[in-house]
Amino acid sequence: MDPWKKNNSGVCPFQVLLEKGFLKSSLRLLKVVFEKCGNKETTESARCFKDSEGNSLLHLACITQAEAICEYLLQKGFNVNDQNHCLQTPLCLVCSKVGSWTSEKMQNFILLLRRYHADPKIPDGDGNTCQALLNGYEALKRSLRKNVKKMEISPILKWRKESEKHMNAFHDISSGKNCQKVGRYHHHQDCIGKGSFSLVFPALDEGDGRELALKRLEKARLKEAHIKREIDCLIKLNDCPAVVNYICSFSSSDFHYIAVELMEGTLDDYLTEQMGGDAVDICLAIHSGINFLHNNGVIHRDLKPQNILYKTTPSLMIKIADFGLSKILQKAKYFGLSDTVMHSRAGTKCWKAPELFARGSQSKHSKGSDIFSCGLLFHYTLASRKHPFYDLEEFPAQLESPDTTENIKDNIRKNNSNFCPSLSPEAIHILTRMLSPEPKERPTASSLVSFPFFGDKETRNDFLRKVGNEKEFIGSRSETSHSPTDVEIELQKQVGKQWKNASSWILNSSIYAVYLEVTSHPKAGTYRTKSAVHLVRFIRNTYEHIKDLSPNVQSLLANYIFLEHFPYLVTEVYKAVQPWKTRPELKSFYE
């Protein structure tokens, strides 16, 4: 017999025992079910039981003042803060009975429920907390505030605690509440992510208590090939620290399940909650994942903030997820295709490359289209959730509306970008290249890391010094006539735009102080202070002779004074000297 099965009136046998006052029989029945029968389905149905008013067994035990039964259910991990249809927790329900119960009985229940972590601050459907319900009963209100020793609730499932964000869900699962079992995994009934044909749940492995994410895909709405492709991509990329780790996959009659490592949330969550962390480091982690994908012949085809996940334990980790639309290029080549993949409908409009909106059969996903989406993610990260092809004054949440989506799509097609004005020159440089409307002009994933954007101050400074050591820059200061090279002409042209009406690069007092000291030495040469080439050569010489300079100037140089006062210089030099990128001293900065 199933003691929780309801009759036509919605009443189960266990309720009848309680309502008739057969409390000893009710308790014996519970002990048989939970300790002797060994039928997990029966115990699970007890935990999931709700009467017509949404009351759990714990609610019913409180209503019938069955204190021993209430304590037994609490010991078995029943949810002490579960709410019925009126949003009453068991404690809230007890407090609503004030005046009809004896004060002693009510106080016993209040203290019992509080020992098992009942929260008196949870309001009911009318907004009343337990404190409000007990107005005029000060002794009982003191019971709500009294410092009681909390009981350690023995989990039903082993649980290796790690996640902070999903702790409440795992507390439920480990206690056997609000969860379902599939295979060896127990997942919470509430999902933490969803796609068109899938849901993602937090889950525990009953074998070792490991936390994980369980993705449930609907068999009826997805082809077997789609599911296999996602699993193949995860297996192929499982060695990458910037891709979510694949654990296993299995099927039931209606669903296919993919178990992967649990992450705390999406990139959007992380940026919304302003959790700190260096934005450049986040971009570097995304780049690392994309580079690994492309090096292994995989294109993602759906890069967007919702598919970039994070976790903070033991330290911040950013990882790429959701390979449902990904393709393995090697398999495409096996069937005589190129390193592009047809089917431009894949992906999300706001995060797609312009060539994927083209009409006709020539629309193809490629590594270049992934790079464009990656550039959108970089801007979104660096500019606090602002999209580079949308009005920056608008709130980012509006990105999901149909009108906004079409507006962004149109701007992407027309190359109407709107970079955030707070971005650094290095950021604008790399984004301009990544978001080029021409796929062939976008950098490869492997080359992105060589851009000045990813270099630290020491690396950028070293780059300027190496350029300043090239023969053309040395020759530019000779007494003999020197015809400037195309590189020098281009550099002067671009840097001159930054100076505008300034008469020289030594107008800043700190730079002038360095200039005076460096040029005061007998063997020091002269510099044309309107020349960008001479500025780079001056930076090289200054650091070359840093030991001969005063402590004050050494301190300025140690704090990278030139990078501070000429923030555009590294980027402009990097672009201007690109024709020299194969030279021995500069090669490493372009590889």
Please tell me about this protein's structure.
By secondary structure, the chain is α+β, with helices and mostly antiparallel strands. It contains 26 helices and 14 strands. It has helices spanning 13-19, 23-36, 40-48, 57-63, 67-75, 90-95, 103-115, 130-133, 138-145, 167-174, 224-236, 267-272, 279-295, 329-334, 367-382, 402-414, 425-434, 445-448, 457-468, 471-475, 486-499, 509-519, 532-544, 551-558, 561-565, 569-576, and strands spanning 179-182, 185-188, 193-194, 198-205, 211-218, 246-251, 255-261, 265-266, 298-299, 308-311, 317-320, 327-328, 340-341, 365-366. The strands form 4 sheets. Strands 1, 2, 3, 4, 5, 6 and 7 form a 7-stranded antiparallel sheet that branches. A 3-stranded antiparallel sheet has the order 8-10-11. Strands 9-12 form a two-stranded antiparallel ribbon. It is elongated. Mean pLDDT is 88; it is low at 331-344.
